[in-house]
Amino acid sequence: MTPYEKFVKIVDEQQYFERHRDVLVALSGGLDSMTLFNWLYQARESLNISLSVAHVNHQQRAVSADEAKALQEKMADLGVPFYTAKFVGSFSEEKARHFRYDFFEKIMVEHQLTALVTAHHKDDLTENFLIRQIRGSRLRHLTDMATVQAFGEERQGLSLIRPLLAFEKSEFDAPDYFEDASNAENDYLRNRVRNLYLPALEKENPRFSENLASLTDEIQKAMSIVTYSARAYATAEKIDLIEFSREIDDLQYFILQGYIAKFPALEVSKAQFDELFHIIRREGQYFHAISNDYNFIKDRYHFYIEERSKATEFETAMTPYITGDFQEIDLPATGQIVIRKRQPGDRIQVNGIDKKLRRYFIDTKVALKKRGNPLIVVDDIVYGVLDVVTADLSKSLKHDKMKRTLYYREKR
């Protein structure tokens, strides 16, 4: 069986394109992606797919522009739509990767293409495993190169397909491709892994890459068991503390990992993770900004992560509303009304007892998130905390004709 026949057999058995007709091929111009394009182009009629191509010129080599032009001319001869972009800004592997995939997603949405196909192969799995080990990645991130996965925003229904993961580079047969001379240089970690570290390890054991691929597969199976065991938490916006406490300690660890992974923009260090894990398992509530954009909250019943932009805000007014969803706080007729955050030493009188506001929150088990709600203060006296408590002084003004009333509700 030729490599092409093996490719067609795998694609047919796995039904990679069963739900896709308009396909975008990520084309660098190297041996891997040119082989992928050639095989897909050759099989396009039997697979019933229409191909488009996207190419990113990273502008890191003098010949990059010439290669992009040659690819564009080739696609024009074949009648295949060709989309290209130039990377801008200071170059790094990570920045280039984000640029590429943002560009691919943009093209797919604009032209209604539902599947992105990349030329990742078995050798990439081995390299990625070592790179992530070197960088200290967690177990779940050592095997996240799936053959098919969702791509872009969930509501768009796009897929990323890697049909070459069962192939070694030695099986690729594109007759025409561009050889990137920088691949022989060792400025980047991936090149060092490919050119230095793997060959050295294979000198120790010629089957090292094969064994590593087998280990990767075992880790994937183990993570599948973890994912299945934690499936009840997969879609939860908040994690129930009682249910969480019933799980064995090791599964709790992975449940928290999986929950944090739902927030791709949130980077949590190992030290932060260990601290959060400890906080969840001990008594008491917790409210803390774990980044510029996210809060971690633990109340009496749940723990959860919330975007800081989604923190509760209130709208207030001094004129009455016809609708009944506004709450009221009565205030004296004179004195400057101040709406502010809690300050050290703030006190409140409730049910005839005067105490520090902090102590009141603790004694009445007010949720930590609500402890940051605005205070209504007149002449340094607290008359209430929005959506938490109304002070005795405000209640005593309820039937007073000489008063002011503040109306408030959560902002919508």
UniProtKB/TrEMBL annotation:
Residues 337-395 form the Lysidine-tRNA(Ile) synthetase C-terminal domain. It catalyses: cytidine(34) in tRNA(Ile2) + L-lysine + ATP = lysidine(34) in tRNA(Ile2) + AMP + diphosphate + H(+). The lineage of its organism: Bacteria, Bacillati, Bacillota, Bacilli, Lactobacillales. Keywords: ATP-binding, Cytoplasm, Ligase, Nucleotide-binding, tRNA processing. It is found in: Cytoplasm. InterPro entries: Lysidine-tRNA-synth_C, Rossmann-like_a/b/a_fold, TilS/TtcA_N, tRNA_Ile_lys_synt, tRNA_Ile_lys_synt_N. The N-terminal region contains the highly conserved SGGXDS motif, predicted to be a P-loop motif involved in ATP binding. One of its GO terms (cellular component) is cytoplasm. SUPFAM superfamilies: Adenine nucleotide alpha hydrolases-like (SSF52402), PheT/TilS domain (SSF56037). Its EC number is 6.3.4.19. CDD domains: TilS_N. The keyword Ligase applies. This is tRNA(Ile)-lysidine synthase. GO terms for biological process: tRNA modification. ATP binds at residues 28-33. It comes from the Bacteria. Ligates lysine onto the cytidine present at position 34 of the AUA codon-specific tRNA(Ile) that contains the anticodon CAU, in an ATP-dependent manner. Cytidine is converted to lysidine, thus changing the amino acid specificity of the tRNA from methionine to isoleucine. The keyword Ion transport does not apply. Belongs to the tRNA(Ile)-lysidine synthase family. GO terms for molecular function: ATP binding; tRNA(Ile)-lysidine synthase activity.
